[in-house]
Amino acid sequence: MSIDETSLSNGELYTILTNKAGKGKKGSIVAMIAGTKADAVISIIEKIPLKQRNQVTEITLDMAANMELIAKKCFPNAIQVTDRFHVQKLALEALQEIRIKYRWQAIDQENDAIEKAKKDNRKFESQVLTNGDTLKQLLARSRYFLYKNKSKWSQNQIGRAVILFELYPDIQKAYDLAQDLRNIFEKTTDKIIGLSRLAKWHEKVNQSGFKSFNTISRSIVNHYQTILNYFNNRSTNASAESFNAKIKAFRSQFRGVRNVAFFLFRLTNIYA
């Protein structure tokens, strides 16, 4: 099973429980419940007979405490697996936070330079880097390749990365930390080795001095048991995210959701 949340209309959240064996087709939806409050969701899922719920052996979810409580109460025999992509996403967001911090600094510097040029009655000219970007453009355009592995960079992105990392070593250090975390999940097959590599990653984070990465490190420590369960079957919440994308595509096809009850009726007719 997978459990996740999605928005149908006006930002209203629904908790969706899906069956991985359905592969996004008929038989995928097990339950769709309005809201994300654990008590409300549990009361609905518990309408499914306990004998059936006890057959669930594994459930993937994110780090949200309410999802963990729902999984624990409703599926007592299921091993909880924290989605590795959710963990990696936190690291990438921390990396982007560092890039954005430097971008705001670059904007401030440019504004100061423009104001100074006006006072001196001269024309302001932005400094252009060797790849044709200004400093502000470099930091804005670097957003895309920082999400990707180096092996997937284009030639232009490689050139931009060389300049970015030379000017901002902190961004390179943060990028390496994010990629190291990804490699632990991609290149480790054993739970014990995974635990050892995560411990080494925590040490690197401590030495980096990045506050946001330290926050992620603490979150991983607090959820390490369910994160390490990934190495049992390499299960992720990708199927739930894929199904959420289907729902959004279905919603956009009909230009939004006017009647939520009827929309849910159609979804369950097709996917339940």
Task: Chart the SSEs and their pairings.
Elements lengths: L1 E6 L5 E6 L10 E6 L3 H8 L4 H4 L4 E4 L3 H10 L4 E4 L1 H36 L15 H7 L13 H13 L1 H19 L3 H18 L2 H12 L1 H5 L1 H4 L4 H16 L6 H12 L1
Parallel strand pairs: 4-5
Antiparallel strand pairs: 1-2, 2-3
Protein name: Transposase
Organism: Flavobacterium glaciei
InterPro entries: Transpos_ISL3, Transposase_DDE
Structural class: mainly alpha
Number of helices: 13
- What is the element string, with H for helices and E for strands? EEEHHEHEHHHHHHHHHH
Name the quaternary structure.
single chain
Distance between the termini: 14 Å
The main sheet comes to:
3 strands, antiparallel
Number of domain units: 2
Radius of gyration, whole Å: 23 Å
Helix content: 55-70%
Low-confidence stretches: none
Overall pLDDT level: 91
Strand order of the largest sheet: 1-2-3
Measured by DSSP, the beta-strand proportion falls in 5-15%
Net shape: globular
How many beta-strand elements? 5
Top keywords for this entry?
272 residues; 2 domains; three-stranded antiparallel sheet; two-stranded parallel sheet; 13 helices; Transpos_ISL3; Transposase_DDE
